[in-house]
Amino acid sequence: MNNRISGILHHFEETHKEEIEAITQVLARITTLSPEQIKPYLGKMLEQLVNPQAEYPLYNTATANELSQAFRDWADSHNRNTPLLSDYAVSRENIYSDED
Fold this sequence. Notes:
- By secondary structure, this protein is mostly helical.
- It is built from 6 helices and no strands.
């Protein structure tokens, strides 16, 4: 989070301290979490609300088809001429060899 967003968030939290505490208490009452456990989640949510343009990880926003396409694109981006490992290199005997 950059300094500008951090400053905005800090100002928001200071300005709305009572409301944020009330929200924390309500969430504590309706869940099995303590206020201390809720605060990080609420802080993250406030950060996202204050900075809606923040980049979110693909797995949080993509559909199943988009994730599938992103995986294919990632796989296709690798060099196909990389030499393969030998059968011995991936064999159980080699992996679990005794190193006495």
